[in-house]
Structure formats: C-alpha cells, structure tokens
Amino acid sequence: GQQVMQIPQYQHVQEGEDFTTYCNSSTTLSNIQWYKQRPGGHPVFLIQLVKSGEVKKQKRLTFQFGEAKKNSSLHITATQTTDVGTYFCADRNTGTASKLTFGTGTRLQVTL
Amino acid sequence: NAGVTQTPKFQVLKTGQSMTLQCAQDMNHEYMSWYRQDPGMGLRLIHYSVGAGITDQGEVPNGYNVSRSTTEDFPLRLLSAAPSQTSVYFCASSRRDRGNYGYTFGSGTRLTVV
Fold it and tell me: How large is the average pLDDT for residues A71-89?
C-alpha cells in the first residue's frame, strides 16, 4: 500500500531559526493536506495543495507541492515557540475523497 | 457549533471487555472517519463513512465495528478489547466537496487496555 514518509522525525531549533519538513510518497499524491498537532492535542487542518508545483503561503508558513506530485514540503520562517508541535502531511485520495493517508509526522521543538 | 465531540476522553478497559467510543458532529459533514494514533506510527485509518448508512474499512479495521445511522453520529465499537488496542482514538469529519477543506478532528479518547 501507499507509504508516506516525513523527514526529519524530530527537529529542535532555537526561536528565530527556520524549519522545513519534507513529505515523500511511494505513489503519486492526489491532494496533499497539512495538519498541526500540538502536544496532547488533536490534528488541526492547515492547508490543502492540489496542483503540481503549487506554492501557498500562510504568514510565516510556506507549503509546496512537488512537480511530480510525489513530495511536498512545509517551511516555517523565523520559528516561534507557538510553532511547537507535530506536523503531518496527508494524502487525500480523490477517488475516495473520504480517505486520508497520513505521513509519519515531524515533531518540532522550539526553545528560546 | 461544537464541532466534533468525542466521549469519553479517557477510558481503562480490561482485556476482553467491549465498549463504544462515541463521536458526534454538528456541521452536517458527509464524511466521517476514525483514526488511531500510536507513538511513532502517525495516524492510521480504522473505518470511514461517506454518508449515513455507508461505511467501509480503513487500514487497521480488525477488532472494531462501526455504523452510521445518522449524518451526525459515528460510533466505534471495540468488540473484545486487547492490550494492542491501547491507543489514542480520533474521530474526524469533513465536507464532501473538494475545495480547500480539511478534516475537523475531535479532541480524542485515550484508551488503555490492561
């Protein structure tokens, strides 16, 4: 079956540094969604990318969809302590749009 | 709107016991799903539903049953609890259309099977 891997598994940065997590799929992605989960919390939807090469920005967050639709990335500029959490990518299968296949997640720790 | 409500928040079961995890949403979402989250394993899909009366299996359905008699409710039943089912369970719902809409997750149920 489809495997969606994220690297790194864990990253610890100092506040103000940049952060990037990469999402790679063994098969072509349909629509990629990104979620953030704070420690002890539940996943919260951030954004969806649907087109090859698409780039979307949300304040300090930049999301990219690869040209071949087999990878995606999330970049955070100048991290803040409020960015702490685990970031998941998820493939939303357009054939059965109710199914999400989640990536393995990247846990971000930010210290002052 | 309350969003997605899961009950209970915490539960301890003995091996072999059965129970139902409740999930209700008030957003009139067509799609609902159940996930389990284990350390280092991400979120894995247990069962999902595209509408009332329609359910299907996800990646890890064994040991769990679901039903969807109404749009609002999607309970998850553990038939005979096993220690391997110790996990955090999340219910989620979404609109059917393909716009920039993600899933809304409930706050989760932490289940321990002893």
Answer: 98
